[in-house]
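REVIEWER CHECKLIST
Item 1: Sequence provided? yes
Item 2: Single chain? yes
Item 3: Sequence as submitted:
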Amino acid sequence: MSLLLRDSNTDKARFVIDAVRNKGEAARSEMIALLCDIDPFLSEHLGLM
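Item 4: Structure as written out by the authors:
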């Protein structure tokens, strides 16, 4: 993966996380629940489960 593409993906992920964080606790909880359903391994690694 090229450095430019990786930086772009990182920026997109950061944007989504920041946007959800600014929406409040309900949005954060929903995002965590969806992430746990979609990728249990990552969620466990991040300490979300």
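Item 5: Key structural point noted by reviewer: Residues 20 and 27 are 6 Å apart (CA to CA).
Item 6: Recommendation: ____
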